[in-house]
Fold Sf6-type phage tail needle knob domain-containing protein.
Amino acid sequence: MIYEAPLTSGSDAHRHKSEVLFDFSASPLVFTQGVTYNLIDRIKAAAPIFGSLLPFFDTAANLLRSFNDDASLHFKANFIGSFPGSAATRSLELDFLGTEGNRLVQNRSLEVDEDVMTFSTFFSVDKNGNIATNGTAIQIRANGRDFTCTKLLLIAEQETYSTEILGGGA
C-alpha cells in the first residue's frame, strides 16, 4: 500500500480555540452527589478570570460544538476543588451525550485534600456528522460525596480550514 501525503499540511489549517478559566472560590460551584448537571448551563452566567466560552461552548443551547469539518476536536477540563469528609468512593464523571462511550471518570483517594481532576479527550469529527451538526451536551455528576469546585479551566481546540459551526447559538 502506498500512502501519498496531501498537498497541504494539516498544520497549515487555522487553529480555533476556546480557553476559559473560572474562579468560584468566592461562591463555590457545588455538584450534589448523584445529580446530573449540564456543565455549560451551570457555568455560563459566571464571569471568567480570562478567556471566552466561544466559539466551541454554545451557551444558548448548552452544547459543545465543533467546526463542520473532518478534523479532530480536542477537549480538556481541569476541576479544582474538594469532596468533604471521607467516603470510600469519590469520583467525578463527564459524559458527552450523543457520542459513543465518551464517559470520563476521575476517582479520588481518601488521602487527597484538594482534588485536581483533569479530563482530556478528543472527538473524531466528521463533516456533517453528529457532533458537527448536533453538538454534544456535557453532563457532569459527582459520586460518593458532593463536589465543591473552586476553579475550572475549560479548553476546546480544533485545527480546520472551516469557518462554519452548524446550529450555533451564542
Summary: The radius of gyration is 17 Å.
